Amino acid sequence: MPAPGENMKVNADRLWDSIMEMARIGPGVAGGSNRQTLTDEDAEGRALFRKWCEAAGCTMGVDQMGNMFARREGTDPDALPVYVGSHLDTQPTGGRYDGVLGVLGGLELIRTLNDLGIRTKHPIVVTNWTNEEGTRFAPAMLASGVFAGVHDQDWAYAREDAEGKRFGDELERIGWKGDEEVGARKMKAFFELHIEQGPILEAEGRDIGVVTHGQGLSWTEVTVTGKEAHTGSTPMPMRRNAGLGMARMLELVDEIAWSHKPHAVGAAGHIDVYPNSRNVIPGRAVFTVDFRSPELAVIEDMEQRFREGARKIAADMGLEVAFEKVGGFDPVKFDEGCVSAVRRAAERLGYSHMDIISGAGHDACWINRVAPTAMVMCPCVDGLSHNEAEEITKEWAEAGANVLMHAVVETAEIVE
Which terminus of the chain is less hemmed in, N or C, by CB atoms within 10 Å? Predict the structure, then answer.
């Protein structure tokens, strides 16, 4: 099959203008975005995306989880479509590019093919996955998880936000609950463009990250129980300090993650200490340990070593410790054929590139279970994301979108 010519490039100004226009919907307080899933702002962003897609000649399908599918027809009506996309929802204090670049990069791909009069054998479908962030309704990647058969749809509908509002009810309220059966679509392949959300590509001076794997994740909630007592009048030998026990366990988390360098990581991101009073020795501490690695055996080793070490710390200090696995997923190995298409695209276009492992979860990690999948990454300034100060350059966005387009078009097969 013919490969796209290296002179086939997206319209970088149009892509950038689209990103900036989408950012005006649900603006943050510090220059970023607050377009949380199933809010009025999410509905407005969806409507703008649909308007743009229909203007580009696409037909829009919506499934029962609110996933949006904008289809550009191919010359073979029986050929499986090539899918591309990401998400339009954001964190409460999110950036302008996380997810949005992947959706609008897919739209720009369609617009560019229209401009150049290029046809493909396989249809191309641009996707907006619902509730990737998982901020308002946990867990993250909820709708792509239902699509891939990871989550039950009724269970997803019953997810509640902090105000007790149900996902299913809010999806209906904003008018984006479609009729299409979730997961019924079959794909030839799926490609997702995303900002790195880490500092590696910028530090290495590379234009493109060719994502070969996604890290697996393990979340364990740990409860350390001691005894509340007065900080001034309780002798040191008689204290059962749950806060101190937690501190020693957090040191252990760091030590274990370092032992599996360079790809494994570990930290505690959610910590509560009770009663959290300045003159009371903590009687209870609850924290969540987050271990990640691209190798399942490493995750399992880190979990086991932490539990064994935490039990010993607790026993030595006269404390009790309990563990509850509250989340996680296995590492992802992306499809070699799709990964190679991304790598060939970067080489054909003359972009510097490197293989990279995604440290964050993405919709592509679930879709990889039901279709050949790969990801393209571009740098972001200082690796900062999930922050209103998140920033990329127009040139980085252009490079990522160009690589995405070439990989997708090669897979969808140009018709001469």
Answer: C
For residue 374, which phi and psi values (nearest 5 degrees)? -155, 165
65: left (phi over 0), alpha (psi -120 to 50) or beta: alpha
Classified as helix, coil or strand, 315 is helix
Place of tokens 């086939």: 8
The answer to whether 62 and 178 have CB atoms below 8 angstroms apart is yes
Listed residue (146, 134, 129, 136) closest to 219, CA to CA:
134
pLDDT in tens, 98-127: 999 999 999 999 999 999 999 999 999 999
For 144, 159, 218, 414, the CA distances from 76, given in Å and listed in that order, are: 27, 40, 43, 12
Would you state the structure tokens that stand for residue 199, as one six-digit string? 């500092």
Assessment of whether the complete model's pTM goes beyond 0.70 = yes
**Phi, psi (deg, nearest 5) at residue 322:** -135, 150
Q: What is the C-alpha to C-alpha distance for residues 28 and 307, in angstroms, rounded to an integer?
A: 40
Q: Report CA Rg, the chain.
A: 23
Backbone φ and ψ of 280, nearest 5°? -125, 125
**Total Cβ atoms within 10 A of residue 132:** 26
pLDDT in tens, 361-410: 899 999 999 999 999 999 999 999 999 999 999 999 999 999 999 999 99
pLDDT digits (tens, 9 = 90+) for 390-403: 999 999 999 999 99
Per the CB < 8 A criterion, the answer to whether 378 and 201 are in contact is yes
